């Protein structure tokens, strides 16, 4: 992902914990410096630096209401993120720039939210739902979380708390696993089956470009207006203009 850094200041944060959540996903907990005053919105992301000086984007999984602590959910299935995690574990310091991203959820808006996440796209949705929980927002939130196999779902401490929220509706969908006894298929198929009319919904989608654009096309065909959907993919991997 190419991101314009625009001379944003780099801050050093203390690494206060790295925990495996399963499915090769690690939660990284950061403590902001006492003199660092940064405001971000639920759904935004930060840039995290490796020792090489290269910055990588990661959605902020914590809620802004959590104050001076940040949480990230990092998938480590190949060398670069594994090396980054090892550096953070060893040095106990993370260099970050934030905030970035136009995608966010206005929880003062009573219109329902439809959150569609594949894999660690959940990180972005985690921030939004946790912010809603901490603020006591009554906005209806429908979450669809997808994985290729059931092992792709990782542990979330907040999940049981979300299950107690009357305005939050949780769905897990698996696309390629015959052992899964829950909902199967593609995420947009589950959404279309559950929601015959998407008018009035605000939709946030997080996943690969192929997943996001496939979901967009399917939901537009189902009657959603394109402008109802937000996704970071639209900024960093825009579709070529139609000639």
UniProtKB/TrEMBL annotation:
InterPro entries named in the record: FAD-bd_FR_type (IPR017927), FNR_nucleotide-bd (IPR039261), MRET (IPR050415), OxRdtase_FAD/NAD-bd (IPR001433), Riboflavin_synthase-like_b-brl (IPR017938)
PROSITE patterns attached to this UniProt entry: FAD_FR
Record bears the keyword Ribosomal protein: no
Keywords: Luminescence, Oxidoreductase
Ranges where the FAD-binding FR-type domain occurs: 8-106
GO biological process, one term: bioluminescence
Keyword Oxidoreductase belongs to the record: yes
Signal sequence coordinates: none
Family annotation (Gene3D superfamilies): Nucleotide-binding domain of ferredoxin-NADP reductase (FNR) module (3.40.50.80), Translation factors (2.40.30.10)
Gene Ontology MF terms: oxidoreductase activity
PANTHER family: NAD(P)H-FLAVIN REDUCTASE (PTHR47354:SF7), NADH OXIDOREDUCTASE HCR (PTHR47354)
The family this protein is said to belong to: Belongs to the Fre/LuxG FAD/NAD(P) flavoprotein oxidoreductase family.
Protein name: CDP-4-dehydro-6-deoxyglucose reductase
Organism of origin: Thiopseudomonas denitrificans
């Amino acid at each position: 992902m190419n991101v314009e850094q625009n001379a944003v200041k780099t801050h050093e944060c203390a690494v206060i914990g790295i925990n495996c959540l399963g499915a090769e996903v690690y939660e990284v907990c950061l403590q902001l410096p006492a003199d660092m005053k940064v405001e971000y919105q639920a759904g935004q992301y930060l840039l995290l630096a490796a020792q090489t000086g290269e910055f990588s984007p990661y959605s902020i999984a914590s809620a802004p209401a959590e104050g001076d602590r940040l949480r990230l959910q990092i998938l480590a299935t190949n060398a670069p993120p594994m090396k980054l995690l090892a550096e953070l574990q060893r040095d106990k310091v993370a260099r970050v720039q934030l905030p970035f991203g136009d995608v966010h959820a206005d929880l003062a808006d009573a219109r329902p939210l439809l959150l569609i996440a594949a894999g660690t796209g959940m990180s972005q949705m985690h921030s939004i739902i946790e912010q809603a929980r901490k603020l006591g927002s009554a906005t209806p939130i429908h979450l669809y979380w997808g994985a290729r196999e059931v092992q792709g779902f990782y542990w979330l401490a907040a999940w049981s708390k979300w299950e107690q929220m009357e305005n939050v509706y949780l769905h897990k969908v698996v696309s390629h696993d015959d052992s899964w006894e829950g909902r199967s298929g593609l995420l947009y198929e589950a959404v279309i089956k559950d929601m015959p009319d998407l008018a009035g919904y605000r939709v946030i989608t997080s996943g690969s470009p192929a997943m996001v654009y496939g979901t967009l096309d399917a939901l537009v065909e189902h009657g959603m207006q394109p402008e109802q959907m937000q996704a970071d993919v639209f900024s960093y991997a825009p579709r070529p203009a139609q000639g």
